[in-house]
Design goal:
about 140 residues, alpha+beta, GMP Synthetase, Chain A, domain 3, 2 domains, three-stranded antiparallel β-sheet, three-stranded mixed β-sheet
């Protein structure tokens, strides 16, 4: 199997902050960290939250794509991703839970299948984490 490579770039902004600028493999920037440890004026994203956002967005992408292929009348999807971490360094994630809220006149079975396919086959982030983090999910459909 051929591999696919991605490269991201993180740059520490200056010596008086804990603020970093990140650029993804396609050139999209993101601010990470905070401007001042003592006066958090310019806050960026928390690095560990980026992991949760990565898992949720990766799976959401798959679920939407799968439901579209199934011709389901999907109107919206929201995923709340909650992570539990150890209270001591290195603050390892021990459990991640994804709660999917989907809107539309959707088949319960097709939604269940789409989430299962994403989490077990397609989502690279979730499948990378599975060996070391307990990952659970549930969903609800609203009309």
């Amino acid at each position: 199997m051929a591999s696919v490579s991605s490269t991201v770039n993180i740059k520490w902004i200056n010596s008086t902050s804990m603020l970093m600028a990140g650029v993804d493999s396609r050139g999209t920037p993101v601010v990470i960290g905070l401007w001042s440890e003592h006066e958090p004026l310019w806050r960026g994203l928390k690095a560990s939250d980026l992991l949760l956002m990565s898992a949720a967005s990766c799976s959401t992408y798959d679920v939407v794509n799968i439901l579209r292929k199934q011709r389901e009348p999907l109107e919206s999807v929201e995923v709340i991703c909650t992570g539990e971490q150890d209270s001591e360094p290195p603050y390892r994630f021990t459990h991640i839970h994804l709660h999917y809220t989907l809107k539309g006149d959707l088949s319960h079975e097709n939604v269940k299948k789409a989430i299962h396919l994403s989490e077990d086959k397609y989502c690279s982030v979730i499948n990378t984490l599975k060996g070391s983090v307990e990952i659970t999910s549930d969903f609800e459909i609203i009309e």
